[in-house]
Amino acid sequence: MQYVSTRGSAPALGFEDVTLAGLASDGGLYVPESWPSFSPDDIRALAGLSYVETAVRVMAPFVTGSLGEEELRELCEAAYGRFSHDAVTPLVQLDHRHWLLELFHGPTLAFKDVALQLLGELFERFLSRREDHLTIVGATSGDTGSAAIDAVAGRAKVDIFMLHPEGRVSDVQRRQMTTVRAPNVYNIAIDGSFDDAQALVKAMFNDADFSRRFNLSAVNSINWARLMAQVVYYFYAAVRLGAPERPVAFSVPTGNFGDVFAGYVAAQMGLPVARLMVATNVNDILHRALSEGDYSQGQVVPTATPSMDIQVSSNFERLLFDAGGRDGKALAQQMHGFEASKAMRLTNAQRDGASKLFASTRVDADGMTMAMRWAYDAAGQIIDPHSAIGLAAARAMDVDPSVPVVTLATAHAAKFRDAVERATGTRPPLPPRVGDLFAREESYAKLPGTFEAVTAYVAERATPRA
Ligand SMILES: *Cc1c(COP(=O)(O)O)cnc(C)c1O
């Protein structure tokens, strides 16, 4: 499988190169040259398969030329063997038509583990082949940082430096990062906001000498391999609810548009997806874009769902490219316009292409709280605030009543205990697998939010390229 850039001028690359590169050299994102196609019989044949076997079947066409089937199976077994539920992503029934797809049974209690555990395995495999080394530098508002650190801790070919804004991530999130003891893991608390931390990371990537010397790499959701890993659970869930005979709708709490774009990919591959609901909190750029064609950046408002407090959605470009007719040169112009003015209109082709599958809903704090209470009253389920945004939108969805509606539950309620307690009066306990989190010793550096301080810290500890 070859991959092309959404901006039309970077060279086409195979899966291995795309995984290690992250962003394309023209500033675009990589997407498969064409979508693999699954017939109804191919989908029927997934019935009853384990999560790992489903993953091998669904991902195999995306990795041809880079990984054989047996290698892919080994990597999936290693990645998903670390989940605490045998089904990896189990379905839970809420009422006669609403279901939760629980994506939080990985080591750090949020759905990002599903993709990052596999990405850790892929990095190790590809870097060993090349006898190369990577330095991952990232900024996190919580979930990506802990999932990425867990995925690469102790690996020989990778060092990771993770910046978080001091005092602005939850205690559980911070401890999941700072109590990991491995010689290749470095946590840095920055005196500043998440945007300051993010700007420092960007500045390091833009410093071409620094970036080359340490072979910098990113783990944010622009990496194609992360999206690919997320396509699997759409198949896994839909097959259990009757696909290919019966179509299924999904509601997805959305920030960077990675998770819901994976659902779009599943539909392009032939999975009968009746509707994809893009559920946003009050930071609603995606809702405005999909309902009115207005993609203009506002101010980020902090909410109880920090992983969705986003005003620019990095993966949306992939949808604009594919739904708008795959014209990379035109999209490059459109995106440069957006980068300059912080606003753009979707073209008619992009709007029509998107409206075939997507709907969108903006959910405020009251809507979120009501969904949490409903899940508890209807089915005894304590859900996290992000999942509640998805569930509120799912319950407002306009689809044929015979279609099952699956809400993606993206985090364990215990990861956001304070917000859950405020909304429901119940404080969810930490699951046993992270039980001693508050007894473990923390270790992290505190640095001022300056380029000089952070680059000096990294340069002293990272492994330069041979
Ligand atoms: C990252 C995250 C999201 C948003 O996912 P995107 O792929 O960025 O749209 C939603 N919920 C939780 C708990 C997350 O960590």
Which helices and strands, and how do they pair?
Blueprint: E1 2-5, E2 13-14, H1 15-21, E3 30-32, H2 40-44, H3 51-63, H4 69-80, E4 91-93, E5 98-102, H5 112-130, E6 134-139, H6 143-152, E7 158-165, H7 171-178, E8 185-191, H8 194-206, H9 208-214, E9 216-217, H10 224-240, E10 248-253, H11 258-268, E11 273-280, H12 285-292, E12 294-296, H13 316-323, H14 328-341, E13 343-345, H15 348-355, E14 358-362, H16 365-379, H17 385-395, E15 405-409, H18 417-424, E16 445-448, H19 451-461
Parallel strand pairs: 5-15, 6-7, 6-9, 7-8, 8-16, 10-11, 10-15, 11-14
Antiparallel strand pairs: 1-2, 1-3, 4-5, 12-13
Bound molecules: pyridoxal-5'-phosphate (PLP).
Pyridoxal-5'-phosphate is lined by residues 110, 112, 143, 221, 253-259, 307-308, 386, 410-411.
Please explain how this structure is put together:
With 466 residues, this protein is α/β, with parallel strands linked by helices. It has a domain at 91-109 and 225-424: Rossmann fold (3-Layer(aba) Sandwich), CATH 3.40.50.1100. It is 44% helix and 16% strand. The protein contains 19 helices and 16 strands. It has helices spanning 15-21, 40-44, 51-63, 69-80, 112-130, 143-152, 171-178, 194-206, 208-214, 224-240, 258-268, 285-292, 316-323, 328-341, 348-355, 365-379, 385-395, 417-424, 451-461; strands at 2-5, 13-14, 30-32, 91-93, 98-102, 134-139, 158-165, 185-191, 216-217, 248-253, 273-280, 294-296, 343-345, 358-362, 405-409, 445-448. The strands form four sheets. The protein has a six-stranded mixed sheet, sandwiched between helices. Strand 6, helix 6 and strand 7 form a beta-alpha-beta unit. Helix 3 (51-63) packs across helix 10. The longest helix has 19 residues, at 112-130. The radius of gyration is 21 Å and the shape is globular. It starts with a strand and ends in a 5-residue tail after the last helix. The model has no long low-confidence stretch (mean pLDDT 94). The chain binds pyridoxal-5'-phosphate. Residues 110, 112, 143, 221, 253-259, 307-308, 386, 410-411 line the site of pyridoxal-5'-phosphate. This is Threonine synthase. Residues 2-80 form the Threonine synthase N-terminal domain. Its EC number is 4.2.3.1.
